[in-house]
Amino acid sequence: MQLCFKSLPSKCQVHPRRSVASLSVPTRRHPKASCRPSRGLANPVHPISGSLREKNVIARSTADNRKDTEAKTYTPNTVPSDRVLSIWRRVDAVCFDVDCTITMNDSLDLLADFMGVKEQVEELTNQAMDGSLSLERALEERLNIINCSPQDIKNFIAAHPPSSRMAPGIKELITALQARGVAVYLISGGFRELTLPVASYLGIPKANVFANRMNWQWDDETGEPTKLVGFDMSEPTAHNQGKPEAIARIRQRNPYNTVVMIGDGITDLEAVQITGGADLFIGYGGVVERPAVAAEAEWYVYDYKTLVDSLRRFRAAMIGSGAWACAAVRMMAQNTLADDPADDFVDEIKMWVYEEDYEGRKLTEVINETHVNPKYFPGFDLGVNVKAVPSIVEAAADADLIVFCAPHQFMHNICKQLMGKVKPGASAISLTKGMRVRPEGPQLISQMVRRYLGIDCAVLMGANIATDIGREQLSEAVIGYDNFDAAEDFKKLFERPYFRVSLLPDPVGAEMCGTLKNIVALGAGIVDGLGLGPNSKATIIRQGLVEMRSFSKALYPSVRDDTFLESCGVGDLVATCYGGRNRLVAEAWTKAQLSDNPRTFEDLEAELLKGQKLQGVLTSNEVQEILKTRRWENNFPLFTTINRIINGYLPPKYVVDYVAGCKFEVPGVESEEDSLVPLRRTPSARPAAPPTLTPVTPSPA
Ligand SMILES: NC(=O)C1=CN([C@@H]2O[C@H](COP(=O)(O)OP(=O)(O)OC[C@H]3O[C@@H](n4cnc5c(N)ncnc54)[C@H](O)[C@@H]3O)[C@@H](O)[C@H]2O)C=CC1
Ligand SMILES: O=C(CO)COP(=O)(O)O
């Protein structure tokens, strides 16, 4: 707080003898403020500085004061607007009024009390309040009365160490700010000698302290300061409007875009009222609450935790609650809860759960009670900070980072529900593996998110079998990105010691890999169902990789070759062909085909996956539509053969004879002109009669 008694308008002058109690109510001590009594203080609320503060408010702002006393009520802005929050979150430098960092009042008043001259200083203060003393004279006269020696100051600091009078949460706030590279300054209308110990305790460099300097008489013989003889008037804080002036100097010396002032007095509020000052004033009422300040502040807080929490830039949400969604949200929850210095994330993560009954109860209720999703990811604790919500809009609406991880067939409906319902600046990432085929062409899930929601969407793809990640076994993934900053944020959100994430500037290539490997995994399952060994499976994997790359590059020429050697390419292909659900169900389906009891994919999916979803069968049909439309079938013999096998047009053994398999024409299947209709949507059981296979005329690709 800076005293400012000069040029008082006559109508707001205060009678010098008027007691604090008789003043109208411009200050209120916040009930939560912790005030430790200290030596020399009978009353934990310092009487002198208490009165100074009140009178200062009156002296500085008659209009505000009148408003306070007449209206008696005021409404502080305790909820920041979007504008205020966005300034706060991108702040480069924060200037604190030193009074807001300590629970006791102005250190100079404490010092007067310590020196036993409390009443005289108070008397002088009252005279100043009459308007007969300027700010400079008031400070000077008070110093004359206090008349301390350097040793007195040392004794005073020893008696009132900064650690004993810190405002609650101030150290955490300053640590959080500095951890994210924000410069922190202290600006005081008091004296440097008293402010520096506070700065040192808070880890604020001396160069970042603006306060008045005491002038000392120096002993010629000892070379030591001996007697206080006044103070240096050249500091900005020695004059009216010293705080905006100090901020202007800070800005001149540093290339800060955004500077915020935090204070509790009218002189702090001035920081934003003068050109060249701060961009935002945040009022602090945790120690002393001044209605005139609270009424004017764009944001008024009563504790620093509010500011620490709101600094956390990102609230994450998970859209999906299947096996991979749960494994992924578990990692996210571990990260958001972790005590990282920058503390980028809000701890709580909302997870949208497609509501269903689980053993007579709502699945969301069970998850919130047990922190486990017993249907889709049994046996794994998701984290206390994961909140299951049945409303997709509620889950996504306040999120800055939205993670999509639902089976691809549901993604169109999900996007439609979220249109216009997500934060404009939010970023998304898709963990979904699959694509949509529309009459005008294919659409990747990330493209769908971008188109429907109007936000950036990266992808996370890799060899990521959910249960292994739940067991915290080493896995890798790539984030395919267009927007590097968002990709870095997502990397922080997902990366764990057992989950290595690298950034890849080929989002389309990564997503195509994740999508197409599910078709190849069906082929691997068929190989297993046929009882063939590793050599045959390796053949399918190799040919599958070749076709994945050719198909991706044929659709999207910018896709990079190297992408196929990443975790999203060969890594995911191997993992899924050995341990995935597509492989599992295709193996069972093949065995059933070869037995007397053929089964459908739907049937086996329901039985073996218990609600989890296969992606490969749908994807195979979707990709086949594209191959047919573009007359590319012969160029993709494995994809085509697998599609014919799973739709019952070829026996499973053709999986290893895919060149021949793709040359057979499927009878009764639509003409090429009608080719947007898939071969057959519902996979059949074993066909009644073996299909008649005739070679197709090779078509130009
Ligand atoms: N499970 C895994 O190991 C991995 C899966 N993925 C991919 O992640 C995506 C999501 O798979 P999972 O999380 O494993 O899910 P899942 O297959 O385990 O579970 C199915 C999910 O779909 C939901 N659901 C059912 N009907 C729905 C409807 N009408 N609308 C919306 N949702 C509905 C269920 O509630 C459940 O959450 C898929 O694209 C998959 O390929 C990727 C890597 C690993
Ligand atoms: O994508 C996966 C692993 O990365 C999981 O594949 P499945 O759906 O075949 O289990």
Which structural traits does this protein have?
N-(1-d-carboxylethyl)-l-norvaline Dehydrogenase, domain 2; elongated; 3 domains; Rossmann fold; 701 residues; 28 helices; disordered C terminus; eight-stranded mixed β-sheet
What does this structure look like?
With 701 residues, the protein is an alpha/beta fold. It folds into three domains: 292 residues, Rossmann fold; 194 residues, NAD(P)-binding Rossmann-like Domain (Rossmann fold, 3-Layer(aba) Sandwich), CATH 3.40.50.720; 185 residues, N-(1-d-carboxylethyl)-l-norvaline Dehydrogenase, domain 2. 43% of the residues lie in helices and 15% in strands. The protein contains 28 helices and 24 strands. The strands form seven sheets. Strands 15-12-11-16-17-20-21-22 form an eight-stranded mixed sheet, sandwiched between helices. Strand 21, helix 20 and strand 22 form a beta-alpha-beta unit. The longest helix has 23 residues. The protein is elongated, with a radius of gyration of 35 Å. The N terminus and C terminus are likely disordered. The structure holds 1,4-dihydronicotinamide adenine dinucleotide and 1,3-dihydroxyacetonephosphate. 1,4-dihydronicotinamide adenine dinucleotide binds next to helix 14.
